[in-house]
Design a protein that fits this description.
The protein is an alpha/beta fold. It has a single domain, classed as NAD(P)-binding Rossmann-like Domain (Rossmann fold), CATH 3.40.50. The protein has helices spanning 11-22, 35-38, 65-72, 87-90, 94-115, 150-154, 184-203, 229-237, 258-270, 289-300, 325-331, 339-350, 360-369, and strands at residues 2-6, 26-31, 56-59, 77-80, 121-127, 136-138, 141-143, 169-170, 206-212, 214-216, 243-245, 252-253, 255-257, 276-281, 287-288, 306-308, 312-313, 373-374. The strands form six sheets. A seven-stranded parallel sheet has the order 3-2-1-4-5-9-14, with helices on both faces. Helix 2 (35-38) links the parallel strand 2 and strand 3.
């Protein structure tokens, strides 16, 4: 299959390119090599970016229509990974996130509809963030609480509650859970799903939106201070710096290794599903941020102290983990890498990388200044 991967030089994209090449696919990549991810003088560590590679690489922004036309000209399928990804940053760079994440996706669909009808399959990188707070059980029914109130967060009341203040029981979030985005980033991802559904129904193109949980693993950006707590924590731990764990450290996420995500994308790309589908992709288990920090500290043999600060960011959620029932049924997807295995692999790789200046405090200060967070630093 001839496949275009937008954002193919990024974290997930670089893994996907290698996987699809091994499977015999013909790959085109478009990526702008963003300095926030790749550095001011980008030198991505990917063999296929070197001279003589069988991959066609176009260095351009996905908002460049001429470059996108060149990239789309000969392909049959698109994996759309390119996006701005920082939840906190999205809350004040609203127009930019809308432009890169949503408007560029609309332009992609328009290009396929009007000039590149040979494209028959599109895989969209969506996000668990579209759900807002994860799913809970209340009085025996599925319940999705409202976004957490900033005043409650300031008082240290972190757990979501029912409409009358009831205690909620956390459960796996299914795809039919009512979306309730809590950040601009999440809103753009949900809008892209809606675009994909409408486009699929109108043009008959297979569109699959994969709602990734918290993806981690080797090669994730260690320099982006707006996303990836494992990157931020590991970089500070290698310098012996204290780790600021937001809220009380009991907030939980579904951490899924990048290799499992790549398998899900590949399954979605190669299966003849027809129509529009939205599926969860995760490990299917919740892990608290404190548990991840403690595991990182052990593996890196770090002396860094773990400090729960009560700090928070607008747009963050308390808990969410994926119900994988539908992904198993539709794709035959099953996560293979355990958290212990994935963290071990991540830490082995991290220790081969340069230690970088930590910029997480500056990123948090930006949010605090705008009233979108609470930092004592």
């Amino acid at each position: 299959m001839k496949v275009l991967i937008t954002g193919g030089a990024g974290f997930i994209g670089s893994w996907l390119v290698e996987s699809l090449l091994k499977a015999g696919h013909d790959i085109t990549v478009i990526d702008n090599l963003s300095p926030q991810i790749h550095g001011a003088l980008p030198r991505p560590d990917a063999a296929w970016l070197q001279d003589g590679s069988e991959v066609k690489f176009i260095r351009a922004d996905i908002r460049n229509s001429a470059a996108m036309d060149e990239a789309l000209a000969q392909v049959e399928a698109v994996v759309h990974l390119a996006a701005e990804t920082g939840t906190g940053q999205s809350m004040y760079q609203i127009a930019h996130y809308y432009d890169v994440n949503q408007q560029a996706t609309a332009a992609l669909f328009e290009a396929i509809a009007t000039r590149h009808r040979q494209v028959k399959r599109v895989v969209l990188a969506s996000s668990r963030s579209i759900y807002g707070e994860g799913a809970y059980e209340l009085d025996g029914q599925l319940h999705v609480p409202n976004s957490r109130n900033v005043d409650r967060l300031k008082r240290g009341e972190f757990e979501p509650v029912g409409p009358k203040g009831q205690t909620l029981k956390l459960i796996a979030t299914p795809e039919h859970s009512t979306p309730a985005p809590a950040s601009v980033y999440a809103a753009t991802k949900l809008a892209n799903e809606s675009l994909g559904r409408v486009f699929s129904e109108a043009y008959g193109t297979q569109v699959l939106a994969l709602r990734f949980q918290n993806v981690y693993g080797e090669r994730q950006s260690l320099r982006n201070p707006y996303t990836g707590i494992l990157s931020i924590f590991s970089n500070r731990m290698r310098q012996g710096l204290p780790i600021n764990i937001f809220e009380d450290g009991l907030e939980s996420r579904d951490f899924v290794h990048v290799s499992d995500v790549v398998r899900a994308i590949t399954l979605g790309l190669e299966k003849d599903l027809g129509g529009f589908h939205a599926l969860n992709v995760g490990a299917g288990v919740p892990t608290t941020v404190m548990e991840m920090a403690q595991a990182l500290g052990r593996l890196l043999k770090s002396s860094s102290s773990l400090q729960t600060s009560g700090d928070f960011r607008a747009g963050d959620i308390r808990h969410c983990y994926a119900d994988l029932s539908k992904a198993r049924e539709v794709l035959g997807f099953e996560p293979l890498v355990t958290t212990e295995q994935g963290l071990s692999r991540f830490c082995e790789w991290v220790q081969t990388q340069a230690v970088l200046e930590d910029r997480s405090a500056q990123a948090m200060a930006e949010l605090t200044k705008l009233g979108l967070g609470n930092s004592k630093g």
